[in-house]
Design goal:
By secondary structure, the chain is α/β, with parallel strands linked by helices. About 45% of the residues lie in helices and about 10% in strands. Helix 12 packs across helix 21. The longest helix is centred in the N-terminal third of the chain and has 33 residues.
C-alpha cells in the first residue's frame, strides 16, 4: 500500500487531523474561535429529558405549501454565501458537535472510572486472595477476613452502580426516536461466541465509557418502521458472480502485467481490471489458519414520513447487516480452511451525514481503536444514506494511519445514494410536512444529484483515498429499488479496477432484463464503457411503493457473499491507477427515450470487445430473450417498444466485429 498523496484540503477536511483520532479528542478549541454564539446545547444532557418538538410549531417556512425542491431553490436564492463558505461554516459547527462536551466528559470519567470493570475485577481478585489468606491463617486471620468482607461490600456496591449505568443506557437508547431533533448515533460491540456486548451512545456518559449489555433494545426508530411492514428475508440472486466476471490470474497474465508496468512503450495491453485468485478455487483441506476479522456495520434511519410515502417498507438496522455478514464470513472461512475470530461493531443512528461521521469517528469508534489496529481483515457494510458515512469514516482512519497493517480491507455498499435518489422525488415531498431538521437531512440526500456540490466532491475525494490504499469497494444495488436508482447505487460516475458492481435480482425478474443487467455489470467491472445505458434505462426499472427492494436487500446473504469474495479472493493491482471520474449531473441530465436505442447499440459494440467471454453467444441469447419477453407492467411495455430494434434486426447489422 503506497503512501497517500496530500491533496489540497477542502473545507470539510480542515477539521480533521492526519495523525490520529485520539489526538483530535484531546485537542481543545481555541478561545477565539468564531461563531461561539451558535454553540449547541451540551450533548451530555440525558436523552430522555430532551423535549419532543412539534414539527408544525417549529416550522419557519412560508404559509404556502412548498415542495422540497422549491424549498432548496429558495434557500439558494436567499443565501448570499457560496457553497464553499457554507461548507466552511458547517465544518466549524460539526467540529463543535463532534468534540463538544470534552470538559463534561472528563468530569464524568473522573468518578465513573472508579466504578469501571477493571477496578471491579481488581477488587474481586484482592477479595479472593484475602479470603484465601484468612483460611490459611486460621482463627488469627480475623483481621484479614474483615478486610475481605469490606472488599466484598465494595464489590457489591460497584456491581450495583454498574447495573444502574447499564439500566440508564438501555433507557436512553429505548427513547431514541424522531422526536429528538438532532443527530443521534450509537454503537454495539460484540465478539462472536460471547454473550452480550458493549453499548456506547453518543451524547451520553457512555460515549467514551461503554457499558456491558446482555442484549440491545429496540429504539423508537425501529418500532415506527415495524408498523409499516415486516422486513422479509430474501434468497434471490446477485449477479454477476466474482469467479465468472474475473478470470483466474495465471503466471502468463502476471508476466504481461509486469511488462505493461515497466515497459515505456505500450507493447502489451495495460491492466484494466482485477483477477480472481485461483488459490481459492478449491478448499484448503487439512490446513487451517486463524485470522482476526473486524466487521463494522453502519445504518441510518430516515424521516419516518418519507419512508412511509416513498419507500413503504422498513430499512432494517445495523444489527441485521452484522448478523448476515458474520454468517457469510464464517461460511467462507469453513470453505477455505480459515478460522475466523470475528468481532463486530454495529453503528446506528439518524441525522446529517457529516455529523454522523464526526460522532461515529471521534467518539464511538475511539472506544475500540485497538480492535481496528489489531485485525487482519476489515469489513465495512453500509446501506442507503450511510454509504457516504462509511466512506468518510474509513477514509479518515486511513489518513490517521489506523489501517496500515491490515492485510485486506473492503466496503460493501448496499443501495447507496452516491448520485442521490430518483430524480423528481424531491418535488413530491412537502416542506411543511417535516421539521427543519428533517428537511436538512432530506436536502442533503438530493445534493448528491449535483456533481458541483460539496457533498459530491468530498465523496469522490474520499473514495480516491480508499482506492490508493488498495481498499476493495463493492457496490450492490437492486434493479427494482423504489428510492435509489441503479446508476446511483452502482456509483456509475466513477471507474477504477478496485470497484466491483453487482445487482440484486428478484426471482421473478424477466429473463431479458436479467441478461441485460448482467452484461452491463460485466462490461463496467472490466472497465469498459456502457455508453450511459445504465442511466438511460433506469427510469423503466423503478420499483413501486412497498414492492421494491430498497429495504429487503440487506437481508439477502448473497449480497454479502459477493462482497466478501471481492475483498478476499481478488488480486491486487500491479500498477497505480488513478480514479477516473465521469461527472453525471442528474439534475441537469435530460432523460430522452430516443437516446436509449443509440446507447444500446454502443453498448453492444463494447460487449464484443470482451476477452475470455463467448460474446457472440451472449448477444444471441440476449436477442432471443427479448423476442420471448412478454412484459406486464406499463414501464416494461414502454421499454420493449423503445428498443424494438432488437427484435427486428439481426446481430450482424447492430454489431460489427
Amino acid at each position: 500500500m503506497g503512501k497517500p498523496e496530500s491533496p489540497q484540503k477542502s473545507s470539510v477536511e480542515r477539521s480533521q487531523s492526519t495523525n490520529s483520532i485520539s489526538s483530535l479528542l484531546k485537542n481543545r478549541f481555541k478561545k477565539n474561535q468564531q461563531d461561539d454564539n451558535k454553540q449547541l446545547k451540551s450533548p451530555q444532557t440525558d436523552i430522555a429529558e430532551t423535549p419532543e418538538q412539534d414539527g408544525n410549531n417549529s416550522q419557519t417556512t412560508e404559509e404556502q405549501d412548498l415542495t422540497l425542491e422549491q424549498y432548496r431553490s429558495q434557500i439558494k436564492e436567499q443565501s448570499g454565501t457560496s457553497q464553499e463558505d457554507l461548507s466552511h461554516a458547517q465544518d466549524g459547527f460539526l467540529n463543535r458537535w463532534g468534540l463538544w462536551g470534552q470538559e463534561q466528559q472528563s468530569s464524568w470519567s473522573s468518578w465513573i472510572g472508579t466504578f469501571g470493570r477493571q477496578t471491579a475485577t481488581q477488587s474481586h481478585t484482592n477479595a479472593a486472595s484475602n479470603v484465601a489468606e484468612s483460611e490459611v491463617r486460621g482463627w488469627w486471620g480475623w483481621p484479614w477476613s474483615a478486610a475481605a468482607n469490606e472488599n466484598s461490600k465494595d464489590q457489591a456496591s460497584l456491581r450495583t452502580r454498574e447495573d444502574e449505568r447499564v439500566k440508564a443506557a438501555v433507557d436512553q437508547l429505548s427513547v431514541l426516536g424522531p422526536q429528538i431533533q438532532r443527530t443521534t448515533s450509537w454503537a454495539f460491540e460484540t465478539h462472536y461466541g460471547n454473550k452480550g456486548g458493549e453499548l456506547s451512545i453518543f451524547g451520553t456518559a457512555t460515549s467514551n465509557s461503554p457499558v456491558h449489555c446482555e442484549s440491545l433494545p429496540k429504539t423508537q426508530y425501529e418500532n415506527q418502521e415495524a408498523s409499516i411492514d415486516k422486513l422479509e428475508e430474501t434468497f434471490s440472486d446477485v449477479v454477476p458472480d466474482i469467479s465468472y466476471n474475473y478470470r483466474d490470474l495465471t503466471r502468463r497474465t502476471k508476466l504481461r502485467l509486469l511488462l505493461s508496468k515497466i515497459c515505456p512503450v505500450p507493447l502489451v495491453p495495460p491492466e484494466m481490471h482485477l483477477y480472481h485468485d485461483p488459490t481459492f478455487n478449491e478448499p484448503l483441506l487439512g490446513k487451517t489458519e486463524t485470522k482476526k476479522a473486524l466487521i463494522i456495520s453502519i445504518h441510518g434511519f430516515l424521516p419516518f414520513k418519507m419512508i412511509k410515502s416513498l419507500i413503504g417498507q422498513p430499512t432494517g438496522s445495523a444489527t441485521i447487516m452484522t448478523e448476515k455478514i458474520t454468517d457469510c464470513l464464517r461460511e467462507w472461512g469453513r470453505n477455505h480452511g480459515v478460522n475466523m475470530d470475528i468481532e463486530t461493531i454495529s453503528m446506528d443512528g439518524s441525522g446529517r451525514i457529516l455529523e454522523r461521521v464526526n460522532s461515529c469517528l471521534f467518539l464511538l469508534l475511539d472506544n475500540w481503536l485497538d480492535s481496528i489496529l489489531n485485525c487482519d481483515y476489515l469489513f465495512v457494510a453500509s446501506h442507503s444514506q450511510t454509504v457516504p458515512v462509511a466512506i468518510h469514516v474509513i477514509s479518515r482512519l486511513i489518513t490517521a494511519g489506523y489501517i496500515d497493517n491490515i492485510e485486506k480491507a473492503g466496503l460493501i455498499n448496499i443501495s447507496g445514494v452516491c448520485l442521490g435518489p430518483y430524480k423528481g422525488l424531491d418535488s413530491k415531498l412537502s416542506v411543511r410536512a417535516y421539521t427543519p431538521f428533517e428537511n436538512d437531512v432530506l436536502m442533503e440526500l438530493f445534493d448528491f444529484q449535483d456533481d458541483e456540490t460539496v457533498q459530491s466532491k468530498e465523496l469522490a475525494r474520499h473514495i480516491e483515498i480508499l482506492l490508493r490504499k488498495n481498499v476493495k469497494l463493492t457496490f450492490v444495488g437492486s434493479m427494482d429499488d423504489q428510492f435509489v436508482p441503479l446508476y446511483s447505487s452502482m456509483c456509475a460516475h466513477l471507474n477504477h479496477p478496485n470497484i466491483y458492481r453487482c445487482v440484486y435480482l428478484k426471482n421473478n425478474t424477466p429473463e431479458f432484463l436479467r441478461q441485460l443487467v448482467t452484461l452491463v455489470m460485466i462490461v463496467r467491472n472490466l472497465n469498459y464503457d456502457d455508453h450511459e445505458l445504465l442511466v438511460e434505462i433506469n427510469s423503466y426499472l423503478q420499483g413501486t411503493l412497498g414492492a421494491g427492494s430498497h429495504g429487503n436487500i440487506i437481508t439477502n446473504k448473497n449480497v454479502y457473499r459477493v462482497g466478501i469474495a471481492n475483498i478476499l479472493e481478488t488480486s491486487n493491482p500491479v500498477a497505480h491507477h488513478r480514479l477516473n471520474v465521469k461527472p453525471i449531473n442528474v439534475k441537469k441530465f435530460c432523460f430522452n427515450q430516443y437516446h436509449l436505442p443509440w446507447c444500446l447499440r454502443g453498448f453492444l459494440q463494447e460487449v464484443l470487445k470482451l476477452r475470455s467471454f463467448p460474446t457472440r453467444e451472449l448477444l444471441q441469447n440476449l436477442f432471443d430473450a427479448y423476442r420471448q419477453w412478454d412484459p406486464q407492467s406499463k414501464q416494461h411495455k414502454d421499454l420493449k417498444y423503445i428498443i424494438e430494434v432488437l427484435g427486428k434486426s439481426p446481430i450482424g447489422e447492430l454489431c460489427m466485429d
